[in-house]
């Protein structure tokens, strides 16, 4: 009787664990990646401070790619002002800490709220329209925010840089790595749960065919604005980490080139996959940092590489790394009778 009860408990626990993994679209390989990311700072040579700093930057970019793909990959709207919304959250949190002494642990959530409100207003004004209008408007808003950050010198110190208090009083990068790793996991889990819900179904329908979605009873404006607002909230939240990790803010954080870098990583990772850009960010950021360290006389080379890879991805694997993974998986499972996925 006791063995039977124990078996039922273990079986129930196993089923619940499988349900959680299914809800998060994770498998054994996903668990392996999570474990590797958790122990990586203790494995040489990644335990060195300069490589830990690269890991922090890569994880921050990974979280940004997840948030960016939430809009681009699902409602088919490119937010060219993404870096500006991130900068909005960063400046909000930093100014609250500098001017009012608010702890950064609370300030980053206030920054997320401000970025969400600004994203909501931008979405209301533009997402009723179709075509490239929303992308252009988000870009213009980003340029306006960068202009304000540059010209309001008395408040933001402009190009001189705003000194922001850090989360922790330590010179080690390891604690910051685990902070941003948790933030990245939270971003992934929340956005994955949303995309697996009826909201995600509506997002996909709108992204694939807005007229068909409207004919099915979906309100495109409502869902597009909701999606855009959520993305901006996460951008502002991650911007708060940026402010209180690097400790100094300049208007350069809002440059369009930063958005283009996030866009490239998200597209190479695979639009609509959520996890593709998150995984792709690590090798690309390490490559980017290596180029800056060793080929400093060739500025912008990383963007050239991103452009070439985007062209190759669009020609051979439009679905990016995520599609390539599915193709490899289908090759291994072909013997089990599963259909093969074409690489094109």
Describe the structure.
The protein has a domain at about 25-255. A two-stranded antiparallel ribbon has the order 1-2. Helix 3 packs across helix 13 (about 275-295), helix 8 (about 175-195) packs antiparallel against helix 11 and helix 12 crosses helix 13. Helix content is about 75%, strand content about 0%. By secondary structure, the chain is mainly alpha-helical. It is globular. The model is unreliable at about 340-344 (pLDDT under 50). It is built from 15 helices and 2 strands.
Quick structural gist:
The chain is mainly alpha-helical and 344 residues long.
Indicate the overall shape: globular
Low-confidence stretches: 338-344
Mean pLDDT, rounded to whole units? 87
In terms of structural class, how would the helical and strand content be classed? mainly alpha
Distance between the termini: 55 Å
The largest sheet has its strands arranged as 1-2
What order do the helices and strands follow?
A: HHHHHHHEHHHHEHHHH
The percent range for strand residues is under 5%
Please bin the fraction of helical residues: over 70%
Q: Main β-sheet, in a few words?
A: 2 strands, antiparallel
Oligomeric category: single chain
Give the arrangement of secondary structure elements:
Elements: H1 2-23, H2 28-39, H3 49-72, H4 82-100, H5 104-126, H6 133-151, H7 153-156, E1 162-163, H8 174-195, H9 198-208, H10 210-215, H11 220-246, E2 248-249, H12 256-269, H13 275-294, H14 301-316, H15 320-332
Antiparallel strand pairs: 1-2
Helix pairs in contact: 3-8, 3-11, 3-12, 3-13, 4-5, 4-6, 4-11, 5-11, 8-11, 9-11, 12-13, 12-14
């Amino acid at each position: 009787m006791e063995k039977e009860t124990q078996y039922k408990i273990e079986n129930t626990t196993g089923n619940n664990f499988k349900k959680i993994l299914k809800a998060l679209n994770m498998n054994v390989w996903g668990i392996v990646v999570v474990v590797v990311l958790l122990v990586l700072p203790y494995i040489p040579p990644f335990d060195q401070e300069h490589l830990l700093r690269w890991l922090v930057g890569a994880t921050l970019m990974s979280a940004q790619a997840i948030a960016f793909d939430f809009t681009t990959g699902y409602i088919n709207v490119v937010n060219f002002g993404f870096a500006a919304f991130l900068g909005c959250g960063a400046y909000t949190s930093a100014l609250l800490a500098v001017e009012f002494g608010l702890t950064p642990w609370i300030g980053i959530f206030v920054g997320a709220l401000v970025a969400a409100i600004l994203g909501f207003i931008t979405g209301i004004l533009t997402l009723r329209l179709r075509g490239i209008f929303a992308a252009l408007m988000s870009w213009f808003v980003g340029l306006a925010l960068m202009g304000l950050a540059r010209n309001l010198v008395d408040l933001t110190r402009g190009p001189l840089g705003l000194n922001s208090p850090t989360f922790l009083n330590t010179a080690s990068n390891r604690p910051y790595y685990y902070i941003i790793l948790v933030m990245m996991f939270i971003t992934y889990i929340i956005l994955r749960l949303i995309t697996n819900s009826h909201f995600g179904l509506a997002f996909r329908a709108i992204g694939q065919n807005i007229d068909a979605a409207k004919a099915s009873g979906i309100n495109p404006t409502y869902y597009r604005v909701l999606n855009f607002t959520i993305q901006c909230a996460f951008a502002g939240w991650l911007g708060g980490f940026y402010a209180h990790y690097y400790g100094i803010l300049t208007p350069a954080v809002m440059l369009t080139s930063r958005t283009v870098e996030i866009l490239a990583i998200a597209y190479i990772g695979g639009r609509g996959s959520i996890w593709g850009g998150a995984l792709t960010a690590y090798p690309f950021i390490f490559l980017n940092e290596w180029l800056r360290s060793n080929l400093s006389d060739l500025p912008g080379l990383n963007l050239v590489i991103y452009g070439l890879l985007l062209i190759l991805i669009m020609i051979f694997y439009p679905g990016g790394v995520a599609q390539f993974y599915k193709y490899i998986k289908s090759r291994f499972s072909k013997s089990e009778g599963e259909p093969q996925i074409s690489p094109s």
